[in-house]
Amino acid sequence: MRIIGGNFKGKKVFQPLDKTTRPLKDLVKESIFNILQHSNKFMFKIEKSNVLDLFSGVGSFGIECLSRNVKFLTFVENHSNALSILKKNLNNLKGIKNFMIIDEDVYKKNCLNNLNTKFDLIFIDPPYSQENIEEIFELILEAKILKTNGILIIHRSKKKSEKLPKFLKIVEQKTYGISKIMFLKLV
């Protein structure tokens, strides 16, 4: 797996040896960034954005954002194996300092409430087996961390069907192999 665009294009992203972490495939990443850059359904400039990467894993999405000059990136990951690889991947990006890592469970109430930033983009990539995804949407709304015109992107198994809360709407949805990507906005 490699960085597909920006300043670090072609640089290797280290992957986990265990099977509990599922890194985002390059094809899916490329599609997400093409949609963000070219869709007329929302206005988004990566260079001016604060991005929150929930369930960061080894950081493939967030690192792609850093490579594309995101304003600031916040990683949230608490799986120790993934966290050590995430740190290794970030150390491999010499000189990049516009990020922070939060080693905490996303579902802990104060995890999101303690963030002092409003985000332009929140990327959510939980394990496919995770069942209570709707709770994350509620935590995001309660913490008031998504800007009014912000974008939520969720990566899930195409077999899963989440119940979206009334305050979110699907702007775009794509399927790639066994996964789907949903772009959501506040209503």
Q: Could you name the key traits of this structure?
A:
single chain, about 190 residues, alpha/beta, 5 helices, 7 strands
Description:
This protein is of the alpha/beta class. The chain has a domain at 1-10 and 21-56 and 77-117 and 133-174. 26% of the residues lie in helices and 26% in strands. It has 5 helices and 7 strands. Strands 3-2-1-4-5-7-6 form a 7-stranded mixed β-sheet, with helices on both faces. Helix 2 links the parallel strand 1 (50-54) and strand 2 (72-76). The chain starts with 25 loop residues before the first helix and ends with a strand. The relative contact order is 0.17.
Can you give me a brief rundown of this structure?
The chain has about 190 residues and is of the alpha/beta class. The chain has helices at about 25-40, 60-65, 80-90, 110-115, 135-145, and strands spanning about 50-55, 70-75, 100, 120-125, 145-155, 170-175, 180-185. It contains 5 helices and 7 strands, in the order αβαβαβαβαβββ.
